[in-house]
Design a protein that fits this description.
TIM Barrel; Immunoglobulin-like; six-stranded antiparallel beta sheet; 24% helix
């Protein structure tokens, strides 16, 4: 089964956009292997839009890799990625053209899927631009899902339709393994918070085999790259990464992984946080309160464990609290929660009935919790 847990990897778009090449992809593959990113679960290296020639081969009608960007072809790149223990991903679109105005897969789905399989592709991001108005969107995603299966190769299907037509209600039926249900992310606090707010009511549709994709992470971009805008603080990046983990979202890095500062590297390789994201039960969190500028939630994990997250979106430090009654744990039960800080590893004690903690502006507190009898 593909996507038993949320897929993890790196996508070229956020930082590099159309400025991609075989040299860049090879450098990123080397970094993913040598830096330890692969060791903690980042397996997929995905080339996004703008990788092909502007026109298909006139005789075979197949997609052709850009001769300038990828002169040795995509099979060479796939082999290079595979030799480093990684999995290789590529991009296409359900329309006549991709979002970057390159050939899309509309009416070429089975041919393109077979081409991708022959190249050694393991992951397809499938976008939603230039789709003919007469074409049914649900059918087009199902058609590519069928085409990928027809190849006989395991290719993870990443459906990117931005949440149109309430896609969380039907996208799983198309064979997709993850699905974008939001617009594009940008590197600022308002963008990632808006995405989070838009998905709190839809997480029940995300489960093993098909995960709600909140878009590629901007963690570590600091305003650089294609979607770089104002950038974020380290506190914002901690909150973004932690929320993706609490929501069981795919963890697709979008920063320049060749130049990650130590604090960001420590964050994206934090095994305690990644374990929350990769929990095999993939349950959505219970929301315990908060307001316009905060989120407090508790997530059931396998083996009787829990994760508790408190997120302060405000401009000032503030105390946030979790009432355990709202998660099904009343005082009369005789149980409390013993909390361990996922960032420091510190045992912060046992709490019954409620927990209160000061959270810095834009930051978060996240704990792994265990039931404990009084």
């Amino acid at each position: 089964m593909l996507a038993k847990t949320p897929p993890m990897g790196f996508n070229t778009w956020n930082t590099f956009g159309s400025q991609i090449s075989d040299k860049l992809v090879m450098e990123c593959a080397d970094v993913m292997k040598d830096s330890g990113l692969l060791d903690v679960g980042y397996r997929y290296l995905v080339i996004d839009d703008c990788w092909s020639e502007k026109l298909r081969d006139p005789e075979t009608h197949r997609l052709v890799a850009s001769h300038e960007k990828f002169p040795r072809g995509m099979r060479f790149i796939a082999d290079y990625v595979h030799e480093r223990g990684l999995l290789f991903g590529i991009y296409s679109c359900d329309g006549v053209r991709t979002c970057g105005d390159y050939p899309g897969s509309f009416d070429h789905e089975f041919l393109d899927a077979q081409t991708f399989a022959e190249w050694g592709v393991d992951f397809l991001k499938y976008d939603n631009c230039y789709r003919p108005g007469s074409a049914d969107q649900k059918m087009l995603y199902a058609r590519m899902g069928m085409a990928l299966r027809a190849t006989g190769r395991d290719i993870l299907f990443s459906a990117c339709n931005w949440g149109q037509e309430e896609s969380w209600r039907w996208i799983r039926s198309t064979g997709a393994h993850m699905y974008r249900s939001t617009g594009d992310i940008f590197d600022n606090a308002e963008s990632y918070r808006g995405i989070v707010r838009s998905q709190t009511g839809h997480l029940c549709a995300s489960a093993p085999g098909c995960f709600n994709d909140l878009d590629m992470l901007t963690v570590g971009m600091f305003g650089k790259g294609l979607v770089g805008t104002t950038g974020c603080t380290g506190a914002d990046y901690r909150s973004q990464f932690s929320l993706w983990c609490m929501f069981s979202a795919p963890l697709m890095l979008g920063c320049d992984i060749r130049n990650i500062n130590p604090s960001i590297y420590a964050l994206i390789t934090n095994r305690a946080l990644i374990a929350i994201d990769q929990d095999e039960e993939a349950r959505p969190p219970i929301f315990l309160g908060g307001g316009e500028d905060s989120i407090v939630c508790l997530k059931f994990l396998k083996g009787g464990a829990y994760a508790l997250g408190l997120f302060n979106f405000g401009e000032e430090d503030r105390e946030l609290h979790a009432l355990f009654e709202d998660a099904g744990l009343p005082f009369a039960s005789g149980y409390g929660l013993r909390l361990r800080d996922v960032f420091t590893g510190e045992d912060v004690g046992r709490y019954s009935e409620y927990f209160r903690v000061k959270v810095p502006a834009h930051d978060c507190r996240v704990y792994r919790a265990a039931l404990e009898k009084a």
